[in-house]
Write a structure and sequence with these properties.
By secondary structure, the protein is mainly β. 9% of the residues lie in helices and 35% in strands. The chain has a domain at 5-116: Beta Barrel (Elongation Factor Tu (Ef-tu), domain 3), CATH 2.40.30.
């Protein structure tokens, strides 16, 4: 099976010593990860079951959409990489390090944006995609407490948080 693209969002704190400002001030995220630009970096991740270290080649983009409220040495970035086992290294809450010969930042995965699976390929190749009509609405099945989708129509109980989903 060919590995597919994975994309996640992360919060990074720039820690590059050569990017430090005068008098030991923290490095600016915009100098290390320029806003609006995509930069190829290595990512150092830790494997969940074995705690082994692995390096990935990734594209990192600083979206520059939040510097007003998070400070100059922090950034919210979008990371894109190609791997069939990325989820074993980069799950929400996992720490990682953008790397170019040394660690340049400390990162925490905040959320996954896209993960390739054989099912996503099958969905994209669905011959019925061009058929007219609307897909069945699953809004009734969305849990108001946690946002997960119930397996069956209400009335039921959410399998994730146990909240009650009443009938309409």
């Amino acid at each position: 099976m060919t590995p597919g693209p994975c994309k996640f969002q992360a919060f990074v704190t720039v820690s590059s010593p050569e990017a430090d400002g005068p008098a030991g001030q923290p490095a600016l995220a915009s100098a290390t990860l320029p806003p609006g630009q995509i930069r190829r970096l290595g990512l150092r991740g830790e494997h969940h079951p074995t705690r082994g270290i692995h390096f990935f080649s990734a594209l990192v983009a600083n979206n520059a959409d939040s510097s007003d409220w998070i400070g100059d040495n922090h950034a919210i970035v979008t990371v894109t990489l190609t791997s069939d086992d990325a989820a074993e290294y980069f799950s929400a809450g996992d720490h990682f390090a953008p790397w170019i010969g040394h660690d340049i930042a400390d990162g925490v995965v905040t959320r996954w944006l896209f993960a390739w699976t054989p099912m996503t390929t099958a969905l994209r190749m669905n011959p019925y995609d061009d058929q007219p009509g609307d897909a069945p609405c699953l809004l009734r099945r969305v849990c108001p407490e946690c946002g997960s989708v119930a397996d069956c129509a209400p009335p039921t109980t959410c399998s994730q948080c146990g909240a009650s989903l009443p009938a309409d």
